[in-house]
Amino acid sequence: GALVYQYPRRTICKSGTSMRMECQAVGFQATSVAWYRQSPQKTFELIALSTVNSAIKYEQNFTQEKFPISHPNLSFSSMTVLNAYLEDRGLYLCGARDFTGGLYAEQFFGPGTRLTVL
Amino acid sequence: QQKVQQSPESLSVPEGGMASLNCTSSDRNFQYFWWYRQHSGEGPKALMSIFSDGDKKEGRFTAHLNKASLHVSLHIRDSQPSDSALYFCAARNMGYKLTFGTGTSLLVDP
């Protein structure tokens, strides 16, 4: 079956520091990876959508300078939160899918990386 | 304003009862819909998808889509305590972006 792993599951960083999180897809080709942030109020914000061999598209209010993403192959993606502050806290979710399935393809999610900023 | 609104925000049903969740989008570009369920401490997992008008049934779960009114619903019959979770409607447009709704917290009382 299709599985998505995320590392670390929880992380705490000091205000102004950076942290990197990873996402690994198993059992399918992660041609497309979306990074989301789920707020403490449980709402989802899409940060960026990455497709292998294409430019990464960031949503409004999110930038490459703040959230650089790497998607080097069909099973792995990473994202760094640079210069983290209190408003960056939340659950960071990686959603991966195989876009060869077209618009019908399901997006599989990992368990998330919970970021706490002190 | 969120493009995908869900109601109610929270819902409590007795074990064995019927839970009905609603989702309305404000963007006619959304054509493909999923229902995701998220248990505490986990990521969201897809329950079912619906792409055509009408009903789609999978076991105890039935989804209904009305594209004209941009309304999607999920009905859970014979609700079980293990169904207690956050439920999200998610919609995709032609640009492949998946937009999540505001969520409904379901509690099934044993």
Description of the molecule:
Chain A is an all-beta fold. Chain A is built from no helices and eleven strands. In chain A, strands 2, 4, 5, 6, 9, 10 and 11 form a seven-stranded mixed beta sheet that branches. Chain B has 110 residues and is mainly beta. Helices cover 0% and strands 57% of the residues of chain B. Chain B has strands at 4-7, 10-14, 19-25, 32-38, 45-50, 54-58, 61-66, 71-76, 85-92, 98-100, 104-109. In chain B, strands 2, 4, 5, 9, 10 and 11 form a six-stranded mixed beta sheet that branches. The mean pLDDT of chain B is 94. The A-B interface holds A 4, 6, 32, 34, 36, 42-44, 46, 49, 93, 95, 99, 103-104, 106-112 and B 2, 31-32, 34, 36, 41-46, 49, 51, 86, 88, 90, 92, 94, 96-100, 102-103.
Strand content of chain A: over 45%
What is the helical fraction of chain B, as a range of percent? under 10%
Structure class of chain A = mainly beta
Describe the largest sheet of chain B. Answer: 6 strands, mixed
Main interface pair?
A-B, 22 and 25 residues
How many angstroms separate the termini of chain B?
36 Å
Uncertain regions spanning at least 5 consecutive residues of chain B: none
Q: How much helicity do the residues of chain A have?
A: under 10%
Runs of chain A in which pLDDT lies below 50 for 5 or more consecutive residues are none
Share of residues in strands of chain B: over 45%
Structural class of chain B: mainly beta
Please give the number of β-strands of chain A: 11
Query: How far is it from the N-terminal to the C-terminal residue of chain A, by CA?
Result: 38 Å
Shape annotation of chain A: globular
Q: What is the string of helix and strand elements of chain A?
A: EEEEEEEEEEE
Q: How many individual β-strands of chain B? A: 11
What key phrases describe this protein's structure?
heterodimer; A: 118 residues; mainly beta; 7-stranded mixed beta sheet; 4-stranded antiparallel beta sheet; 11 strands; 0% helix; 51% strand; B: 110 residues; 6-stranded mixed beta sheet; 5-stranded antiparallel beta sheet; globular
